[in-house]
Write a structure and sequence with these properties.
393 residues, 0% strand, mainly alpha
């Protein structure tokens, strides 16, 4: 659709001729009585006094002449109420078979089929979406993610390149460096993916993950320049898998990298703060690379938990820790609370009951005598234990 719009330029009638074909072309019902003068006026305003005859000569070049003749013969019906009609709802109402609800397995198969079709847009991306989906879903499963998160990552990977359709092949297959305007077009493709999937409620959550496939932790990514906690774990894993798989494939401006070269470069992206280190190691692990064995610290703490506790011990707040380690403040607080070893305090010595609490106690008979302690005195000889897990801001 986008390439058609770019090819025909500012004149929208050619594009409408393509888009309106399922609605009006080939219909057997008589035209709706809508006022023929309106359609003739629109044709005259756009193409001069010859009206749709001039349109016929302009449309005949890029499109099928038979379709052009049908359009010009029934143009009023084709264009009637076109701007006010929701095409999505019209298509669904016209095709009862589209009301069928897919099962999760059927949904995966359908998305995989569409992704393979999208990958055919360029010879350099054939099979890319399926490979990224396998890599990302295995990696997030290796991190201990629940089943629903694994399914979300896989489906998000399958639809992540849908926005490629909105960018011309003249850009994707260009062997020379891209111009500034071409780069701006490339930076829009994740946004286009999100927009494509925003209307169907079942697919919108996957679009929210796929739109972050090019975001980076330091805020240097696109399309929105998100950073840190704004990038969820599914998006971090998907980004690492997408970058790794892209390096293994040829591109018009470079040859494919070897597995070792791709792994080394991916780790370099993590060290620079652009990709999540945990996601990178998970992707490399399922891809067959040797990854560092997890070394537990004292009391079974991980290195990340030790880093959080070290910063908090130095007086940092949860927000400071989150900014330093590129995690959310909630994660920092949860880590500090759950990672603090529980301390056992010695039991307080048993208190001897005061004579006042016994039945044999009697108030002194003389008014001048004073009790050894005031009636409201509190025994503070044993300090209460300090509480742990205090919420820090």
């Amino acid at each position: 659709m986008f390439e058609v719009g770019e090819r025909v330029g500012p004149e929208p009638v050619e594009l409408r001729a393509q888009l309106a074909q399922p609605v009006g072309v080939g219909a057997v019902d008589p035209p709706r009585p809508i006022g023929a003068s309106a359609g003739r006026e629109r044709g005259s305003d756009r193409y001069g006094p010859d009206g749709w005859g001039t349109a016929r000569s302009k449309l005949a070049c890029p499109f099928d002449p038979n379709l052009v003749e049908l359009l010009c013969a029934d143009a009023e019906k084709v264009f009637y109420d076109l701007d006010d009609t929701e095409s999505w709802d019209a298509v669904l109402d016209a095709e009862p078979a589209l009301s069928y609800v897919l099962s999760p397995a059927e949904c995966d198969e359908a998305l995989a089929a569409i992704s393979r079709f999208v990958d055919l847009k360029s010879p350099y991306t054939i099979g890319d979406s399926t490979a990224v989906a396998d890599l990302a879903s295995d990696a997030v499963a290796a991190l201990g993610a629940p089943e629903h998160e694994v399914a979300t990552v896989r489906r998000s990977a399958l639809i992540a390149r849908f926005g490629y359709l909105g960018v011309s092949n003249a850009i994707w297959d260009k062997p020379r460096p891209l111009s500034a305007s071409e780069w701006e077009r490339v930076r829009l493709y994740p946004y286009l993916t999100e927009r494509m999937l925003q209307r169907p409620p079942a697919l919108a959550p996957f679009g929210q993950v796929a739109v972050r496939v090019r975001e980076q932790l330091d805020g240097s990514g696109y399309p929105r320049g998100l950073s840190g906690a704004s990038i969820t774990r599914p998006a971090r894993v998907l980004a690492a898998a997408d970058v790794y798989q892209a390096m293994l494939e040829p591109r018009p401006h470079r040859s494919p990298r070897t597995r070792d070269e791709a792994g080394a470069e991916l780790r370099g992206e993590a060290r620079s703060g652009r990709l999540d280190g945990e996601a990178v190691e998970a992707v490399l692990g399922v891809a067959g690379h040797r990854v560092a064995r997890r070394i537990d610290g004292p009391a079974g703490l991980t290195r990340r938990e030790i880093e959080v506790l070290r910063l908090i011990a130095r007086g940092a707040t949860n927000k400071d820790v989150a900014a330093r380690l590129v995690i959310s403040p909630k994660t920092a607080g949860t880590t500090s609370n759950t990672s603090t070893p529980s301390l056992e305090y010695p039991a307080a010595p048993k208190q001897v009951s005061s004579p006042r609490n016994t039945a044999s106690y009697r108030r002194p008979s003389t008014t001048s005598a004073k009790p050894s302690r005031p009636p409201d005195a509190v025994d503070r000889s044993v300090a209460p234990p300090l509480g742990l897990g205090v919420k820090r801001e």
